[in-house]
Amino acid sequence: MKLKHTLLAIFITAIWGLNFSVIKLGLESVDPYILAGIRFFLCAIPAVFFIKKPASDIKYLIVYGLLFGVGLWGIVNLGIQAGLSAGIAALVLQFSAFFTIVLGAFFFKEALNKYQIIGIAIALIGLLSVIRLTDGSVTLAGVTLVIFGAISWSIANIIIKKSGTKEALAFLVWSSLFSPIPLFLMAYIQHGADIYSSTSSQIDFKAVGSILFQVYPTTLFGYWIWNSLLSKYPVSQVAPLSLLVPVFGLISSVLIFREQIGIQKILSILIIILGLILGLYGRQLKFYFKSFSAIRPEKKS
């Protein structure tokens, strides 16, 4: 990737990392599904009246809208409400990088290598260690829901590649049309009609700020840039940069919610990140080490 695109991607990961804490703030007064539903309603309206529908087949827009809006963010919101801290949610969601590689191997015939297999195994050990945390920042239900969200994000990444779209912003805006109704319907099924009246009476400035941050910097700007990069570069080059999201996510969670970072949590996080680095960059690291050894001058006797 070009340097300017790499730096831009890093900036997006910083926004996304902060977004987990912003979501948690919004969930203090708004239902998870309604929070996501409002987010994607505002992503689509009024933008669809000013942005031409992309040339992509409508089926890709529908599937992406359902996966991204409902399968990813509706479920991740639910996971955070189920007791997962913003920092840990940001970390667990990065398993999407592995799911994306596995799905990419299936759809694009890219064979898995030994580093990816070993990396997945190491990361899973770290995930099991995270689940055993007892500091109140982790629940099994929360982890399970966010893992489901990670799978949805991975499939959504594949949909972007399969669609062949070059109109990243238009694709995002028009696909967002298919997210709100299922999300609002899920809130109705879970809580009944009263959830809408209670939301209108409980929503506050903090929730409004949370929604606006999720809509504009995080979704419309962030995913426009991310999907543009996915259309320009191989999935294997773009997806690994998401490793920075949990770093920014944990930092923001510590600053905003005073999330505790004990020794066990640090070790668990390091194990997962080690697994991700090995799985995503193992082959390149081996090549660099071999190249370094080849050019290193021999010691004089």
Kindly describe this structure.
The structure is a single chain. The mean pLDDT is 86. The chain is an all-alpha fold. It has one domain. The protein has helices spanning 3-26, 32-44, 58-81, 86-92, 96-108, 114-131, 140-163, 168-175, 180-191, 194-202, 205-232, 235-238, 244-257, 263-295.
Could you state the order of secondary-structure elements as H and E?
HHHHHHHHHHHHHH
Structural classification? mainly alpha
H/I helix tally:
14
Tell me what portion of residues adopts beta-strand conformation. Answer: under 5%
Q: How many strands in all?
A: 0
Radius of gyration: 20 Å
What is the first-to-last residue Cα distance? 42 Å
In total, how many domains does the architecture comprise?
Answer: 1
- Helix share of residues? over 70%
Oligomer status: single chain
In round numbers, the mean pLDDT is 86
Low-pLDDT parts are none
How many strands, which pairing sense, and closed or not: the largest β-sheet? none
Architecture blueprint of SSEs:
Elements: H1 3-26, H2 32-44, H3 58-81, H4 86-92, H5 96-108, H6 114-131, H7 140-163, H8 168-175, H9 180-191, H10 194-202, H11 205-232, H12 235-238, H13 244-257, H14 263-295
Helix pairs in contact: 1-4, 1-11, 1-13, 2-3, 2-9, 2-11, 3-7, 3-8, 4-13, 5-7, 6-14, 8-11
